[in-house]
Amino acid sequence: MIVRDVYLNKIIQLKDTYELVKVITGVRRSGKSTLLLLFHKYLLEQGVPESSIIFINFEDFGYRELYNPANLHDYISKRLALNGKTYILLDEIQIVDEWEKVVNSLRINKNNDIFITGSNASLLSGKLATLLSGRYIELRIYPLSFREYLTFNCLEAKDKSDSFSDYMISGGLPALAALPDQNNIKSNYLSDVVNTIIVKDIASHWQVRDIDLLNKLIGFLSSNIGKLTNASNLAGFLTSIGTKTSSETVDNYLRLLEEGFIFLKALRYNLYGKYFMKTNSKYYIVDLGLRNAIIGSSGYDYGSSLENIIFLELLRRGYTVYTGQFKDWEVDFVAKRKNEQLYIQVTASVADENTLNRELRSLKAITDNHPKYILTMDKLPYDDFDGIKGINIIDFLLETHPIN
User: Fold this and answer.
1) Helix, strand or coil, per DSSP, at residue 329
2) Which residue, 102, 133, 281, 318, is most buried by CB atoms nearer than 10 A?
3) pLDDT digits over 279-315, tens only?
């Protein structure tokens, strides 16, 4: 197993915070189970006895009797350390009925340090939020960053341009690194992941009746990542192509796609009036490999793919990310982290003067002192446009020219 240090260090920092249930979330096959295994290994290396660790992967059919909440509670209770701490690691726990009650009951014991994972956002809503009432912390796992992609595939930084092109096509699901390229094995794997997310994490979990509508909505969003839209417009489009629906239904399905972590929503923020706009948001997909599995190469769009990669990278670095509106002009991203705020435009190239001026226009109009950036694939001969920094996208992703 290749260690993803960023996430492992985060989970290690949360060790022994008994008052909090650690909830590890993320799209299916993004590495949540591997992270728990790595943390298990770390505990053993730190001298924690195996008897003080309870690790259950609920996708292992051997644990099927524990799908019953009473059986699960009895199983864990009998294995708690008689003296001292017990580390309880529960993988894909959403499979268990009424698992929230089990976790809350175990949390009451101050010697239990609980870590759970799941592949849909219902872990953080409804019963869990009610029962725990602020006594949990989320750690969101994303597919591989470009830097991690190079490590997982044993690639050198000197090959980064070609590797980046491959990354944009295949995406960053960790298991791809171990699969051969021939016979469409990787593309078949990605298609299987998409189908599993749709069937298990969305349709079955939420008892979706209209799978055809769900698939058409997924296809449309995948083909239009980074474009402003809303439920009413989407309902109108779907109806126009023969799938009659309502904005209320589309709005519910959009929420489910977010719940399954396959699409991420960027709210629209009015920078002039300092408020969130109620109409139109942008949707980005959690992994470009999944997008390409959904729509195929015919729907590939270089510019929107670059924007999607930057959006995800900002989230990985702990920013809350919005799309900005300043009067009549759009700002691709407004990124906030603690007391830090950034404005970012993403474009394939600014070699054309008209393109450069268009990208600079909205940034120059903003009169506050927060840093402003243009991220581009160009190898820039200079990196300053009247106080607005230009950074090569690959350099930014590898942090050889970081935003700060």
Assistant:
1) strand
2) 102
3) 899 999 999 999 999 998 766 789 999 999 999 999 9
The predicted pLDDT at position 404 comes to: 58
Which residues, other chains included, contact 377 with Cβ-Cβ below 8 Å and sequence gap of 6+?
A: 306, 348, 349, 392, 393, 394
CB 92 within 8 A of CB 119: yes
Q: How many CB atoms lie within 10 A of CB 390?
A: 21
Domain edges within the chain: 5-140, 179-300, 320-398
CA atoms within 13 A on the CB side of 9: 3
Q: Of 208, 31, 213, nearest to 119 (Cα)?
A: 31
Looking at residue 118, what is its pLDDT?
A: 86
Beta bridge partners of 373: 344, 389
Residue numbers in the chain where pLDDT is lower than 50: none
What confidence score (pLDDT) does residue 327 get? Answer: 87
Pairing of strands 372-376, 388-392: parallel
310-315, long-range: CB < 8 A, 24+ apart: 310/344, 310/346, 310/375, 310/393, 310/396, 311/226, 311/264, 311/266, 311/284, 312/142, 312/143, 312/145, 312/264, 312/284, 312/286, 313/145, 313/146, 313/396, 313/397, 314/344, 315/140, 315/142, 315/264
Sheet with 268-270, strands from edge to edge, namely: 275-276, 268-270, 320-326, 329-337, 340-347, 372-376, 388-392, 384-385
pTM, full prediction: 0.94
Q: Is 382 exposed, middle or buried (0-12, 13-18, 19+ CB in 10 A)?
A: exposed
Q: Give dist(CA 100, CA 105) in Å, integer.
A: 9
Q: Over the stretch 326-351, which tens digit does the pLDDT of each residue have? A: 888 999 999 999 999 999 999 999 99
CATH number of the domain at 5-140, out of 3.30.40.10, 3.30.70.2190, 3.40.50.150, 3.40.50.300?
Answer: 3.40.50.300
Residue 203: partners with Cβ closer than 8 Å, 6 or more residues away: 211, 214
Question: Helix, strand, coil % (nearest 5) of the chain?
Answer: 50, 20, 30
In whole angstroms, what is the distance from residue 80 CA to residue 106 CA? 10
Beta carbons within 8 Å of 387's beta carbon, 6+ residues apart: 372
Instruction: Give me the pLDDT at residue 159, please.
Output: 73
Residue count of the chain: 404
The DSSP letter of residue 281 is: B
Amino acid in position 387: G
pLDDT at 125: 66
